[in-house]
Design a protein that fits this description.
The protein is of the alpha+beta class. It is built from 26 helices and 13 strands. A 5-stranded mixed beta sheet has the order 2-1-3-5-4. Helix 2 runs parallel beside helix 7, helix 6 packs parallel to helix 19 and helix 9 packs antiparallel against helix 10. The protein starts with a helix and ends with a strand.
């Protein structure tokens, strides 16, 4: 007991120093994890690369311009805070800097959280404990690891706003409130909660009326700016709310009002209830004891519940959990303080500490990232292919390569070229002639699976492969290894590697043959597999899996360059695969897939495979 008392006295005396030590440790550790994920090309959900290109172009005078999402960022979100962050970004241009900024911004949120708790409890140990709970929260970790997002700045400013709300100091509150608004247009909905709370706390008119007036004016002005720059003149994320009909704010609102039962069933679905329980689990549901402060997230959380996906698990595995986590922590602080005189408080604190540590180990993405099956040889190939591309070259690339290629004026995603359209297919897109096209077929399967979305018409899907094949006719394959292919503009290179060829007609011995693969040949010296395929049986739902010593990788059987509507009926298609020396065998499947979010926030295709050709040794 004497030993524990000494520890308690030490923590009580040095709580502020320990707080800053933990903040720095968190920032460095998650900065390291983020850079590890970047080094292995696992950031493949667009956002990091989009933001890096926007920062890069803005720093170079092309304010908020980007080509990765095809247009100015003002058509997506209104985020003036980018200009305040530019001096920090300029210190080290590149996605690495953004990931470090993100890690330390989330870490620094523990500082005002400590001060809030200390004001409520006058207890240094409790204040430090709440700060630690923030730094150990698995959903904070997921937001940190997912991609780069400016929303990760919001908790820092939200907690400071609440601190000054507690202190009843309106001037510093409104300054930090104004900076928070600059993060993103929908942060204004998040901050509206302060005005709701102000009525309950009987604050003066500034808190009750000025805060919501400023928030709502800012929100609707920001929407008008976004509408102006949007290719179709509308806020494209309204698509998430059109599940009952409507395409603009008024028509969507009317669809909700006119279908109250459907809305209530949607909001109070088991998915939403179970997701809420999961988010509250690390707190042992204690925030429900002081649920008044959940009103701080009422508007933003309601906006989440009314989307088509509602409060799905994907929400708390991404940055969107940050719209509700801060208010849960505020409830948590007051709930802990209310246990001050409980005779069971020691047991509750012990159970809480055990739960937090357990979930920080087993629910957090830390363990998944540290034990991730990193493909070091695949990393070498990816670094090798990037060395072929000049810093100023124009390029279209798969999403896993985009972060490394986004510090340039012009870079496009391969997926939009394959789709023939941008995000949600709001606008058509025809890839202009670029210097290079770089394809990671692991990501390409994600692109193909994405066409299951309802906004892909049958007509568009039917023509994708042949249109994509026609596009690649303007390029020569100059580098290939396993599932990575690099093409260069034919005007810049004399001759390239063989990839596919449609033979003039089926070879005589293959007529009336009902095999998908007519013949195969493996060049042992150069590790090249050549297959002759039956065009009549070939589908883009055929996948060839190559098995290496410790890993495997997948390719579309004919690189998704042909479709049933193309003129390859009754023909033989010759295909070559350029393999690493450790590839030992292959197998052919038919496949279906749904896209999911992996354990470290990466986009993955969840395959359902059916073998049609048994594993064959090379």
């Amino acid at each position: 007991m004497l030993f524990l008392s000494k520890i308690r006295l030490f923590i009580d005396k040095y709580s502020k120093q320990l707080l800053w030590l933990l903040i720095i440790a968190y920032g460095l550790f998650f900065g390291y994890l983020s850079l590890l994920k970047l080094d292995y090309f696992i950031y493949n959900n667009f956002d990091l690369s989009i933001f890096n290109q926007v920062f890069y172009n803005t720093l170079n005078g092309n304010w908020l311009e980007m080509t990765i999402n095809l247009h100015t960022y003002l058509a997506d979100h209104f985020t003036p805070i980018i200009f305040l962050l530019l001096p920090i970004y300029a210190l080290k241009i590149g996605p690495e800097n953004l990931l470090i900024i993100q890690s330390f911004s989330l870490a620094l949120a523990a500082w005002p959280l400590y001060l809030i708790t200390h004001k409520v409890s006058r207890n240094n140990l409790l204040a430090l404990s709440v700060a630690i709970f923030w730094l150990l929260n698995p959903f904070v970790h997921y937001a940190n690891i997912y991609e780069f997002h400016l929303l990760t700045l919001a908790p820092f400013f939200f907690f400071w706003c609440f601190y000054f709300y507690q202190e009843n100091k309106f001037k510093p509150f409104i300054v930090l409130f104004a900076i928070a608004l600059l993060i993103r247009e929908d942060v204004s909905l998040f901050l509206l909660g302060f005005s709701i709370l102000a009525f309950l706390d009987k604050k003066d008119w500034r808190w009750k009326y000025l805060v919501p007036i400023v928030s709502l004016i800012y929100f609707f002005v920001a929407l008008r700016i976004i509408d102006y720059f949007s290719p179709d003149g509308a806020y494209k994320f309204l698509a998430y709310y059109g599940w009952l009909g409507g395409s603009d704010v008024l028509s969507i609102a009317w669809s909700f009002v006119s279908h109250p039962i459907k809305v209530l069933l949607h909001v109070f679905s088991w998915q939403n209830i179970s997701s809420a329980l999961i988010v509250l689990w690390p707190f042992l549901f204690l925030p429900l004891l002081k649920s008044k402060y959940l009103l701080l997230s009422l508007v933003s959380f309601s906006a989440t519940l009314l989307t088509a996906t509602s409060f799905a698990s994907i929400i708390f595995y991404t940055h969107y959990s940050l719209f509700i986590l801060p208010s849960i922590f505020i409830c948590f602080i007051f709930s802990l303080h209310s246990l001050k005189f409980s005779k069971h408080k020691s047991f509750i604190y012990l159970l809480l500490a055990t739960t937090v540590i357990y979930l920080a180990i087993f629910l957090s993405p830390i363990k998944s990232l540290l034990t991730y099956p990193f493909d070091k040889q695949g990393l070498d190939y990816r670094q090798e292919v990037l060395e072929q591309i000049g810093d100023q070259a124009t390029i279209a690339a798969s999403t896993s390569f985009l972060p490394d290629l986004s510090s340039r004026e012009t870079v496009y995603p391969v997926s939009y070229s394959y789709f023939g359209g941008g995000q949600f297919l709001i606008e058509d897109f025809d890839l202009p002639l670029v210097d290079y096209i770089l394809i990671d077929y692991k990501n390409f399967f994600v692109d193909m699976a994405a066409t299951n979305a309802t906004f892909f018409s049958t007509e568009r899907k039917v023509m994708m492969n042949s249109r994509w094949g026609d596009k690649l006719q303007k390029y020569s394959l100059i580098w290939a290894k396993n599932d990575i292919l690099l093409f260069q503009n034919k005007e810049q290179v004399a001759e390239g590697l063989f990839l596919t060829e449609v033979l003039s007609e089926q070879e005589e011995q293959f007529k009336d043959n009902y095999n998908l693969i007519f013949d195969s040949y493996f060049d042992n010296q150069n590790n090249i597999l050549e297959l002759k395929l039956n065009s009549n049986l070939l589908s883009d739902k055929h996948l060839i899996r190559f098995y290496r010593d410790d890993y495997y990788f997948d390719l579309p059987l004919a690189y998704s360059l042909f479709s049933a509507e193309s003129d390859v009926i009754d023909k033989t298609i010759m295909v070559k695969y350029y393999l690493s020396s450790d590839v030992k065998s292959y197998q052919v499947f038919t496949w279906q897939a749904e896209n999911i979010l992996g354990l470290v926030g990466e986009a993955l295709s969840d395959f359902k495979l059916q073998s049609i050709i048994d594993q064959t040794s090379l």
